[in-house]
Design a protein that fits this description.
alpha/beta; Cyclin A, domain 1; two-stranded antiparallel sheet; about 45% helix; HARBI1_dom; Transposase_HTH_dom; Transposase family protein; metal-binding
Length: about 260
């Protein structure tokens, strides 16, 4: 693990991957001189993503101008986003696993237009906040397989998974998956917990689950646990705890973090 002066730790494999991408990009463009070598530029970019340090803070810490820090970060995000896997590549990885875990999460945003109700599509009633819906696929031991491009936060997890083609891909390739009750009816390969029974017409109360059904739900929750850890690790990248940029630019940011997470695994 390589330390950053502010206390950040980062996998050396992810940092080396980014540094190598930057060196290759510089060689391709024929860049002769830069204020920072590729390794320092990589550290600057990771500090921005991991710590959510501002351009001004990074510029001061690395001894460059604010506009230079901005250009370095934009350049690196383009390179990292281009390396992010596609759904087809992720499905090839998932086919080699005993099963995968499918879960959705909300990445909060704070810069969305309010005029003409534009913000309503981004408002999640479940979380009582504006955000972006992303679908996350993880393997049984909690390693990231794929993160979907973002959709407006009001989108239901099931609808988002269908729109991205995840459900059809799981069904076509017969990939077993564990998911929560939001994915009820997702197909024969997607296992979800037992739901509460309907109301008893005599008492007006929900009928309790049987002991066997509760045991099944407990076992299912244990299978899904590693997927929850992946979502937690995703939000350890502080840049994604509350995205300050326009929602239209978030896809590149998420793809860049995804590349670094997979490299760190």
């Amino acid at each position: 693990m390589l330390p950053y002066p502010s206390g950040m730790t980062m996998s050396s494999r992810a940092l080396n991957l980014l540094a190598d991408l930057l060196r290759g990009h510089r060689a391709e463009r024929g860049t002769r001189w830069r204020k920072l070598p590729a390794g320092r530029q990589a550290l600057l970019v990771v500090a921005h993503l991991r710590k959510n340090d501002t351009y001004a803070e990074l510029a001061c810490g690395f001894g460059v101008g604010t506009s230079t820090a901005y250009r370095y970060i934009r350049e690196a995000l383009d390179l990292l986003a281009a390396k992010a896997p596609t759904l087809e590549q992720a499905i090839e990885v998932a086919r080699r696993k005993a099963f995968v875990i499918l879960d959705g999460t909300l990445l909060r945003i704070d810069r969305v237009g309010m005029a003409s109700g534009y913000d309503r599509a981004f408002y999640s009633g479940k979380h009582k906040a504006h955000g972006l819906n992303v679908q996350v696929i993880a393997d049984p031991i909690g390693r990231l397989v794929w993160i979907s491009p973002p959709l407006p936060g009001a989108r239901h997890d099931m609808g988002a998974a269908r729109e991205h083609g995840i459900i059809d891909a799981f069904t076509t390739h017969k990939i077993p998956a564990a998911a929560d009750t939001a994915y009820q009816g997702a197909g024969p390969t997607v296992a979800v917990p037992q739901r509460r029974r309907r109301k008893d017409p005599d008492t007006g109360r929900y009928r309790p689950l049987s002991r066997n059904q509760k045991n099944v739900n407990e076992a299912h929750a244990r299978r899904r646990g590693p997927g929850e850890r992946v979502n937690a690790e995703l939000k350890n990248w502080k840049i994604l705890r509350k995205i300050r940029s326009s929602p239209n630019n978030a896809a590149k940011l998420i793809a860049a973090v995804q590349t670094l997470m997979i490299a760190s695994a």
